[in-house]
Design goal:
This protein is α+β, with helices and mostly antiparallel strands. It contains 8 helices and 32 strands.
Length: 510
C-alpha cells in the first residue's frame, strides 16, 4: 500500500468514527419542552426559572433554564423520568407546594411536552385559608413581620386591618358606613394570616408591638388572585405613632417623619430619562416629580416597609415595595414601559364607558358618576361649571380670571389637620395622573367623570385629599368621519345610476 492510499484509508476511518460518535451523542438525549402560564390572569410567564430533576435515584444536580418572551422553555436531557417545576415567589410566600409535573423523556425527534401553571384564584384561596371556603369578593392577607434594623422575625407582633363597610339601613333606606377591624398576632416565625377580608377594597394595615402602633400601610387584595402577601418591617425598639386604642379610627394618616430616603432615576425602555413622572409612597401625601434627568428623591421617611408608586401619562404604572433602615438611602431605578394605544378607531356599536369607571360606579356608592350621555345632557362647556352642578361643590375664583371648584366638605376635612398631615383640598385625577389642573383638561374629549365630595369615599389609591375628581378622556381626540345622511345617500345613488346608464349608452354606440 502506497502512502497516498494509506492516508485515504486513515481519513475514511476517522470520518466513519466521527460520524458514529456524533450519532451516539445525538441518540443519548431527548427534548423536553413546555410553557409556563398564569392561570389567574390568563397570561404567559416570561423570565421564570424552570428546573427538571431526574427521579431514578442518581445523584445529579437539577437542570435549569429560563422561559423566553413567550413563556416557553426547553431542555436536552438523557432519557428517563423527571420532575419538572418552576420558581414562584408568590407560591413560596403562600407556602403552597405546587406538585411538580412528572414526565418521561424519550429518545427520538419527537419532544416530550409539559404544561406548568400558577393555580387559579380559587385554588390559591383554598391554599391560603384551608377549610374557610372563601368566595368571590373575599380574600386573605398573609406575610411576615420583621424588625427593620436586625431583620429578625417579631414574635407576638399585632397586625390590625381596618376598612369601611357600606350597607343599606333597612329603616331609613340610607347608606350606612361602618368601620371594621380584624386583628391577629404573629407566631414565633413572625408569620401572620388573616382570612375573609374584602377584595378590591382599601385596607389600612398597622403593626402594633409592645403597646405601640405603627403608621398605616394601604393594601389592596386583587379579587382575581384572592390572596395578597405583605411582608412588613417595623422598628421594634422605638414607640410608634400612637397607641393601640387608635386603631381603625383614622381614615387617612401620613407616615411619621424619619431620617431615611428613597432616590433613583426613571428611564424609558430605550434608556432615555423620563422627566415629569409622579413618585410617591402609598399612604403618604407627599408627591415628587422626576427632573429633566429623570432623577427623583423622597426624604424624611420613616424606617420600615413602604410601597413606592410611579406614574406617568402614557406609561404603565410601576409599584415596588422598599424596606428602609434608620438613616439609610435606598436607590431605586425605575424603567417605565410605554402603553401602546391605537391612533384612531371607528366604533360601530353603542359607546361603552371605561371598565374602571363602571367598576367604581358599582362599588363606591357615595360618589357621583357622569358618563358621556349625562355630560352631554347637562350641557356645560367647561369642567368647573359641570362639577359645580353636582351637590357638594361650589365655584371659586382663581388667579388670572380662571375658575376652580371647592367642596363644601373642606372646612370639616381640615379640622385638626396641621403640618405634614394637612391634606390637599382637591386631587384631580386625569387618566390615572393625579394632582392635575383644570387647565390640563381639553373638555371636548372628556368621556366620563367620577366626583367624590368627601375624599375618603373615593377609591383608596386617590383618597389622599379632602375631595377627589376622577376624569376619563377618550383614547384619541381625532373625530371619525361622520356617516352620510339620508339626503347624501340619495345623491350618491343617483350619481351612481347616472354613471351606469352612461356606460351602457357608450357600449351600444358603435
Amino acid at each position: 500500500m502506497n502512502v497516498a492510499s494509506a492516508r485515504l484509508s486513515l481519513a475514511l476511518l476517522l470520518t466513519l468514527c466521527s460520524g458514529a460518535t456524533l450519532r451516539a451523542q445525538q441518540s443519548v438525549t431527548g427534548r423536553l419542552e413546555g410553557t409556563v402560564t398564569d392561570s389567574v390572569h390568563d397570561a404567559i410567564l416570561s423570565g421564570t426559572t424552570v428546573s427538571a430533576r431526574r427521579m431514578d435515584g442518581t445523584e445529579s444536580p437539577a437542570h435549569t433554564t429560563v422561559t423566553d418572551g413567550r413563556g416557553q422553555f426547553q431542555f436536552d436531557l438523557p432519557p428517563g423520568r423527571y420532575a419538572v417545576s418552576f420558581a414562584s415567589s408568590l407560591l413560596d410566600s403562600l407556602e403552597y407546594g405546587v406538585s411538580p409535573a412528572i414526565t418521561t423523556v424519550t429518545l427520538g425527534p419527537i419532544p416530550t411536552h409539559v404544561e406548568l401553571a400558577i393555580p387559579s384564584g380559587e385554588t390559591l384561596r383554598a391554599a391560603a385559608c384551608p377549610g374557610s371556603g372563601l368566595l368571590r369578593w373575599t380574600g386573605a392577607l398573609l406575610g411576615v413581620v420583621n424588625d427593620a434594623e436586625s431583620r429578625r422575625p417579631l414574635d407576638s407582633a399585632e397586625v390590625f386591618v381596618a376598612w369601611n363597610e357600606q350597607s343599606i339601613d333597612s329603616t331609613t333606606r340610607d347608606i350606612v358606613t361602618k368601620r371594621r377591624v380584624e386583628h391577629v398576632r404573629t407566631n414565633a416565625s413572625g408569620q401572620y394570616r388573616i382570612c375573609g377580608l374584602p377584595t378590591d377594597e382599601r385596607l389600612n394595615v398597622q403593626i402594633g408591638y409592645h403597646g405601640a402602633i405603627g403608621p398605616i400601610a394601604i393594601v389592596l387584595i386583587s379579587d382575581d388572585l384572592g390572596v395578597r402577601v405583605r411582608n412588613v418591617a417595623v422598628r421594634s425598639q422605638v414607640p410608634g405613632v400612637g397607641d393601640v386604642s387608635r386603631v381603625g379610627q383614622v381614615v387617612v394618616e401620613a407616615p411619621r417623619p424619619g431620617r431615611s430616603s428613597v432616590a433613583g432615576r426613571i428611564t424609558r425602555t430605550d434608556g432615555l430619562p423620563l422627566p415629569g413622572a409622579q413618585v410617591r409612597l402609598l399612604g403618604g401625601i407627599v408627591t415628587v416629580r422626576s427632573n429633566e434627568q429623570g432623577d427623583f428623591a423622597l426624604t424624611n421617611l420613616s424606617e420600615g416597609s413602604h410601597d413606592l408608586e410611579v406614574r406617568h401619562l402614557g406609561y404603565g404604572l410601576v409599584s415596588r415595595q422598599v424596606t428602609l433602615r434608620d438613616g439609610e438611602t435606598v436607590r431605586e431605578n425605575i424603567t417605565m414601559e410605554r402603553v401602546v394605544s391605537l391612533d384612531s378607531v371607528r366604533v360601530v356599536a353603542h359607546r361603552m364607558s371605561y371598565p374602571e369607571f363602571e367598576k367604581n360606579r358599582a362599588r363606591y356608592y357615595r360618589g357621583a358618576f357622569l358618563d358621556a350621555d349625562e355630560i352631554q345632557k347637562r350641557g356645560y362647556k367647561t369642567m368647573p361649571l359641570l362639577v359645580q352642578s353636582i351637590r357638594g361643590f361650589r365655584i371659586v375664583p382663581q388667579t388670572r380670571g380662571r375658575l376652580g371648584v371647592q367642596s363644601n366638605y373642606l372646612t370639616r376635612c381640615r379640622e385638626g389637620q396641621t403640618g405634614v398631615e394637612r391634606l390637599d383640598p382637591l386631587n384631580l385625577v386625569v387618566d390615572n395622573m393625579e394632582h392635575m389642573d383644570f387647565t390640563d383638561i381639553y373638555f371636548p374629549i372628556v368621556e366620563a367623570i367620577e366626583v367624590y365630595a368627601e375624599g375618603e369615599n373615593a377609591p383608596f389609591k386617590y383618597a389622599r385629599a379632602c375631595s377627589v375628581i376622577v376624569v376619563w378622556t377618550k383614547r384619541s381626540a381625532k373625530k371619525p368621519k361622520a356617516d352620510p345622511s339620508f339626503e347624501q345617500l340619495k345623491g350618491l345613488l343617483k350619481a351612481q345610476s347616472k354613471q351606469e346608464a352612461q356606460q351602457q349608452e357608450n357600449q351600444r354606440t358603435p
